[in-house]
Amino acid sequence: MNLFRRLSLATTLATIGTIGVGGLVRATGSGDGCPDWPRCFGRWIPPLQKHALIEYSHRTVGAIAIALLIVTAVVAVARRRERRAVVVPYAIGTPLILVQAALGAIVVKVKTTPDLRFLESALVTVHIATAMTLVALLVFATVRAYRPAPREPEAPREPEAPRERAASAAVARLARMSAAGVFAVILLGAIVRGEHAGLAFPDWPLMNGTLFPDLGGRLTLHYVHRAGVAAAGVLLAVFLVRALRARGPARTFAVLAGALYVAQAVVGGLQVWTRLAAPAVTAHVLLSALVWSSLIAAATLARPAPATGRSLGAVAREPLPVAGGQEWT
């Protein structure tokens, strides 16, 4: 189990790292640094050119993530096949990461083909949506893998009071809502990048010196993104307060998500102030993946214990119900 846990964590970190390096590719304009795929200028070793090296580093980290995911999926089936909550995400994630790699190849083709440039924004958005879906699967599986295995029967405990159960249910619901809000903001950000609307407003946090600017075209797109950031931030703040009050297992990741979201907002301002400097853009992309990962971890841990008199530790090892009456274990 220790091997599987390490592999699961390494796979998740490598996938998030791939997203971060992808942000660097976007920030430096290196998306067409290698005009072909999977090789670079027809070679497996790229030329010693800035954009080629950056683009190829993204492919290399992605290849490592793919290899780790395949190995982890094999180990999950071989050693943990009885825990579907761990196995199923890898069964879905393995083909999904291959789809993600194929989307990357298509994006390269579109960027280097003038007649297809109109598809770039949509493909970039689908590319990041697929990446975040994959990260969600991996984080969910990793959190489940790190839950302690049962060693001895636990002594019965008093069932939670109705007020405590209501608080646990509220935390779980807010965790899911916050994750959904952040996912929407990430997609809006991808559209902003794809439409080159990152500097539609030259100032931050105001927009043309006001909170209510005249809108139209890219201005509207950028405004919707900022409004979404504010709305998701309010939702996340409510979740954080409730998680701290409930003192449940999701509290640590709720605090982490809140801190990362504040950092993400500040970096968003730095993008405007630095005129989309590469470090700010790269940090913005990486932080978005980390905020999303923290919220998925929190939502996974926030599932309230049923009123059976058992401890949360015992409930955490129960099967996870899914649609259709089946169970993930």
Class derived from helix and strand content: mainly alpha
Beta strands, count: 2
Percent of residues in helices = 55-70%
Task: Give Rg in angstroms.
Answer: 21 Å
The termini sit apart by 15 Å
**For the residues shown, what is the average pLDDT?**
83
Across the major sheet, the strand order is: 1-2
How would you describe the shape? flat
Helix-strand topology string = HHHHHHHHHEE
Low-confidence segments:
150-159, 305-329
How can the largest sheet be summarized?
2 strands, antiparallel
Care to describe what's here?
By secondary structure, the protein is mainly α. The protein is built from 9 helices and 2 strands, in the order αααααααααββ. It has helices at 2-28, 50-79, 84-111, 120-145, 162-194, 218-246, 251-273, 278-301, 312-316; strands spanning 320-321, 327-328. It has a two-stranded antiparallel ribbon. β1 and β2 (327-328) form a beta hairpin. The two termini are 15 Å apart.
